[in-house]
Design a protein that fits this description.
alpha/beta; Helicase, Ruva Protein, domain 3; Rossmann fold; 2 domains; 7-stranded mixed beta sheet; about 35% helix
Length: about 280
């Protein structure tokens, strides 16, 4: 099998043999990514050398990857990598796969706070460390604390911070605010679970393979968001900011939650699709 044949095999398998529950939005891209991963090359090589033969080992590895993708396993878990904020991050089934939507949190923080001051920021439920690492890479003089209840996720986050040579992040194991003790912060940020427990979406696509504790949060999906809003004030300096991602259909519930917990200067921000996906509020 050469590169041209491998691409045709992967595309045909993913395009025609995937059930609706295992549907892939872009079989051509998935095939290219998995072949590049197998050959340890970039897409330019696939175009330049279509007649290049795969070794028997490479062919077997590629066919196995395509089969797993056909069965629904996310590409990021198959390659062990996902790009976030132009940073290459390791991911595995212990962590949520970082999404481009979550970059709105990073953009908002960087736009509101420049590098002239040294802020203290806590990223709660850090997972792969994507948010904390993106901010640390842009704000070297900030003190960043990242927490997660999962030791397996923290191992991934620590690996990613070390890979990008970031020394301004400390990682702590524990649920939400527990590891923060008596510390206070200027900014608390989170991408918490916000899907309702019995939401059918949890049984489809890539989400089926991601950790439930990073996705689902009670009967309405609001349990963890309510916990964040109720307790954040204890860990924020005066004027401190809480911001987090949520589902676009939760806009009103999130607004009510922030108001109920006496946040001011509340803002709700839209993603590129025009949906409100990030909310923030200030403690006076």
């Amino acid at each position: 099998m050469n590169i041209k044949q491998a691409l045709a095999f992967g595309l045909d398998t993913l395009k025609h043999n995937v059930s609706s529950a295992h549907h892939t939005d872009n079989p051509e891209l998935d095939t290219q990514v998995l072949l590049c991963h197998t050959l340890k090359c970039n897409t330019a090589k696939l175009i330049a050398w279509p007649e290049l033969e795969l070794s028997n080992i490479q062919q077997k590895q590629f066919e196995d990857l395509i089969t797993q993708r056909q069965q629904g396993t996310p590409v990021a878990y198959l390659t062990g990598h996902r790009e976030f904020w132009s940073l290459d991050l390791m991911v595995n089934p212990a962590t949520l796969i970082p999404r481009p939507d979550t970059e709105l949190l990073v953009e908002t923080i960087l736009a509101r706070f420049n590098n002239k001051h040294s802020f203290k920021l806590a990223d709660l439920g850090t997972g792969s460390g994507a948010i904390a690492i993106a901010i640390a890479s842009e704000r070297a003089n900030w003190e960043i604390t990242a927490t997660d209840v999962s030791n397996e996720a923290l191992a991934v986050a620590r690996h990613n911070a070390k890979k990008h040579q970031l020394s301004n992040i400390q990682f702590f194991q524990g649920s939400w605010f527990e590891p923060l003790e008596d510390n206070r912060f200027d900014i608390i940020v989170s991408n918490p679970p916000y899907i309702a427990n019995h939401e059918p979406h949890l049984k489809t696509g890539d989400v089926r393979f991601e950790p439930d504790q990073a996705l689902a949060s009670g009967p309405t999906g609001m349990d963890d968001i309510e916990h964040l809003c109720q307790h954040a004030a204890q860990y924020l300096n005066a004027g401190g900011l809480l911001l987090f991602e949520h589902g676009y259909e939760q806009q009103k519930d999130v607004l009510n939650c922030l108001q109920k917990n006496k946040f001011t200067d509340i803002m709700q921000l839209r993603d590129l699709a025009g949906h409100v996906r990030v909310s923030l509020g200030r403690i006076t």
